[in-house]
């Protein structure tokens, strides 16, 4: 039979249940037996981790349900945006830099006799520098172009049939002299740059066409050859016409020579006076 | 190096939040932080994990710099983290044009650890190291000077990834944008049932399953984690 002292402490027990037991004892207070009250905030400390853990602590099911119910719901417009017409391409602001680059490309295209479009695969910077150096020795400039600038320029110039080539990473090899042979030689040594097509003196050439063009002799030689080919028939005609008189002349010369020889043979005795 | 994309339109006046002159302080690099405070603690202190829990009240806004690292979760930074931050940022900034500033104090909280392989009991372990507590929403470092966010973002992102809590590099504008978006979300939430409403009015007796801290944290924080997608 207990006295009215509420602070009867139970015998010391290990760890957390101490708190529970103490509270139970305090709750009991002034009466016969201490009632078995159950406070969840304390009872749950018996097992489980603290509030702040390194791992993601598992939530009570009711809490999970509450979190699921109180999730964010975004506003839904009456007409879904995909049913509305597409907004016009915003940002059509004229970019000064784009304008400058376009002007540069235009000038380059108009000022060069040979423009070769190549596909560029990434290479080391020093290799790029070497490549440019070798081409520069033959007077060929390497220009890196951005497709979004080059495409409108090319579409409006006389090179519009080259438009399908301006896809992916491109470089332009431009020069004032059509030095196809040297260009091909350098390109053969650089596998990362692939020739796609070229425009030489207003003629669009494919890769094969450029190779053929490179094997052609130079302009003077080909001019001479053309002249020779053209003048073949007239020269034949003239030689035919001259054949008769030439033969006659040759025969007469032979005759004169024979007569001279014969005269020389008979005359020498009389020539000794 | 040839750039295969056109850079975007230039934005005028990306300076120090509109100020004209930017002054680089005398010591632009981050100060060295001690491993152990000058007066090491004698009395071992309780763990007090509530210094990790919940949102931060201090150092939530920019002071000197323009860009920084924002903590999106709670955690402890120890000397190793400080050294990593100091050296990475020191390596990546240009001291003539940029500067960096700490927004967290040096480690002062003593953390104990019992030696490995021993059973429970035998008292509290000795002090292992000193740490700084960081709550979500706090800035860790600030970087400023004559630089753009694009220059600063890569190395700040690398540092942020190595921190013990989730962190992101932010600028003044991006932080403002983040806060504005949060506010907008809160206002245009179509769900009539919010955590805050349920907890404050104790609907369905939910407070039996929730902590009294949830009144303050409103379901956005769970332990040391910050739930960015909530409300």
UniProtKB/TrEMBL annotation, chain A:
Q: Which domain of life is it from?
A: Eukaryota
For whether the record's keyword set contains tRNA-binding, the answer is: no
KW Cytoplasm (keyword) present: no
Q: Which InterPro entries match?
A: Ribosomal_uL10, Ribosomal_uL10-like_sf, Ribosomal_uL10_bac_type
The record's section on CDD domains has:
Ribosomal_L10 (cd05797)
Keywords per UniProt:
Ribonucleoprotein, Ribosomal protein
Looking at the UniProt record for this protein, which Gene Ontology cellular component terms does it annotate, in alphabetical order?
Answer: ribonucleoprotein complex; ribosome
The UniProt entry's sequence similarity note says: Belongs to the universal ribosomal protein uL10 family.
This protein is called Large ribosomal subunit protein uL10m
UniProtKB/TrEMBL annotation, chain B:
Q: Give the matching InterPro entries.
A: Ribosomal_uL16, Ribosomal_uL16_bact-type, Ribosomal_uL16_dom, Ribosomal_uL16_sf
- What main location does UniProt list? mitochondrion
Write down any Gene Ontology CC term: mitochondrial inner membrane
Instruction: Enumerate the subcellular locations listed in this protein's record, separating them with semicolons.
Output: Mitochondrion
Alphabetical keyword list: Mitochondrion, Ribonucleoprotein, Ribosomal protein, Transit peptide
* One annotated GO molecular function: rRNA binding
Show the CDD domains listed in the entry. Answer: Ribosomal_L16_L10e
One Pfam annotation, family name?
A: Ribosomal_L16
Q: Which GO terms describe its biological process?
A: mitochondrial translation
Q: Which PANTHER family match?
A: 50S/60S RIBOSOMAL PROTEIN L16, LARGE RIBOSOMAL SUBUNIT PROTEIN UL16M
User: What family does this chain come from, according to its entry?
Assistant: Belongs to the universal ribosomal protein uL16 family.
What's the protein called, per UniProt? Large ribosomal subunit protein uL16m
């Amino acid at each position: 039979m207990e006295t009215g002292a509420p602070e009867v402490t139970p015998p010391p027990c290990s760890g957390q249940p101490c708190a529970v037991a103490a509270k139970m004892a305090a709750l009991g207070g002034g009466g016969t037996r201490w009632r078995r009250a159950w406070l969840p905030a304390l009872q749950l400390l018996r097992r489980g981790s603290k509030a702040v853990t390194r791992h993601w602590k598992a939530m009570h099911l009711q809490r999970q349900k509450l979190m699921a119910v109180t999730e964010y719901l975004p506003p839904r417009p009456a007409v879904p945006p995909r049913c509305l017409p597409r907004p016009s391409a915003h940002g059509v602001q004229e970019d000064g830099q784009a304008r400058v680059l376009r002007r540069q490309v235009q000038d380059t295209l108009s000022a060069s006799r040979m423009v070769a479009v190549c596909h560029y695969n990434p290479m080391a910077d020093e290799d790029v520098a070497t490549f440019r150096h070798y081409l520069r020795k033959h007077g060929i400039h390497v220009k890196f172009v951005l497709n979004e600038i080059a495409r409108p320029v090319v579409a409006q110039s006389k090179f519009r049939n080259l438009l399908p080539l301006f896809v992916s990473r491109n470089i332009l090899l431009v020069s004032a002299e059509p030095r196809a042979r040297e260009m091909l030689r350098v390109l053969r040594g650089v596998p990362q740059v692939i020739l796609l097509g070229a425009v030489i003196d207003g003629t669009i050439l494919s890769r094969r066409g450029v190779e053929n063009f490179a094997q052609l002799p130079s302009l003077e030689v080909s001019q001479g050859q053309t002249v020779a080919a053209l003048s073949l028939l007239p020269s034949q005609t003239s030689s035919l016409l001259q054949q008769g008189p030439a033969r006659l002349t040759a025969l007469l010369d032979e005759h004169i020579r024979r007569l001279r020889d014969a005269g020389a043979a008979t005359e020498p005795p009389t020539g000794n006076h | 190096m040839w750039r295969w994309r056109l850079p975007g339109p230039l934005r005028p006046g990306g300076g120090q939040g509109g100020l004209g002159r930017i002054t680089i302080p005398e010591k632009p690099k981050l100060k060295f932080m001690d491993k152990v405070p000058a007066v090491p603690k004698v009395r071992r202190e309780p763990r007090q994990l509530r210094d990790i829990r919940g949102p931060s009240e201090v150092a939530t806004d920019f002071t000197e710099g323009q860009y920084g690292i924002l903590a999106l979760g709670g955690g402890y930074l120890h000397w190793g983290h400080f050294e990593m931050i100091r050296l990475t940022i020191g390596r990546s900034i240009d001291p003539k044009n940029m500067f960096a500033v700490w927004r967290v104090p040096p480690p002062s909280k003593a953390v104990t650890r019992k030696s490995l392989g021993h059973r429970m009991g035998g008292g509290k372990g000795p002090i292992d190291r000193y740490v700084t507590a960081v709550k979500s929403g706090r800035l860790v470092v600030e970087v400023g000077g004559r630089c753009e966010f694009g220059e600063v973002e890569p190395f700040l992102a690398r540092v942020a990834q190595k921190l013990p809590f989730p962190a992101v590099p932010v600028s003044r504008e991006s932080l403002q944008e983040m806060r504005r978006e949060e506010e907008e979300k809160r206002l245009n939430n179509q769900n009539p049932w919010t955590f805050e409403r349920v907890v404050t009015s104790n609907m369905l007796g939910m407070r039996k399953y929730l902590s009294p801290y949830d009144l303050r944290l409103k379901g956005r924080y769970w332990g040391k984690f910050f739930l960015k997608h909530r409300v």
